[in-house]
Amino acid sequence: MVIRFFVPHPFVAGIGDQLERWTVIVAAATVVLGVANLLRIHLKKVSAREKDWQFSLPLIAGVLIMLLFGLAPASTWTALGFRAGGVSEGSPFDFMYQRAYVPMQGTMFSLLAFYVASAAYRAFRIRKMEAGLLAVAGVLVMIGRVPIGRAIADFLPDIATVIMDYPSTAAQRAIKIGAALGAISTGLKIILGIERNAIGSD
Asked: 101-121, pLDDT tens digit by residue?
């Protein structure tokens, strides 16, 4: 799948497309295995009364409720007054997703903003040249992204755009490539039995 981006040959592209279809099938199966493994680990934690076992109860309840809402026949929910069933818009699953999961996700990201601000404060203390470059780039982007930036100088928004489009995008791609390689190596270790923490054993 990686090689096909560098070798523009129909044979390689065909193999890559086939592997991509297999990946979708395997990913769907792993979701089922992941949910089953998650329930197994947390049910065991609750039954053994391990440390912080109380936090496993909302997780188990949430998983079971969302499974019920998603797998129950649509006729059941339409008879109860809902517009649809399954995972479509207007279903109980969609209601819980939009009214519970999305707000909790927003709360989590809003809490992360404090950690990001703290990390930015530590990073912007200029002690090395790299920290100085980071501070200058951060200030230029922040000023260029707000209306007052154009009032100060017409070129500030353009500088912010160049920073975001080139060095920032390059760094994000490098991070994504590193994360993908890490995910591949972790997946291989789990498949080969080298890493067992993911399946709840040492």
From this structure: 899 888 888 888 778 777 777
pLDDT at residue 142 tops 60: yes
DSSP codes of every residue in the chain: --GGGT---HHHHHHHHHHHHHHHHHHHHHHHHHHHHHHHHHHHHHHTT-TTGGGHHHHHHHHHHHHHHHHS-HHHHHHTT-S--TTSTTSHHHHHIIIIIHHHHHHHHHHHHHHHHHHHHHHTS--SHHHHHHHHHHHHHHHHTSHHHHHH-TTHHHHHHHHHHTHHHHHHHHHHHHHHHHHHHHHHHHHTTS--GGGT--
Query: Count of CB atoms within 10 A of residue 54's CB?
Result: 10
pLDDT digits (tens, 9 = 90+) for 7-46: 888 999 899 899 889 989 988 898 889 899 999 999 999 9
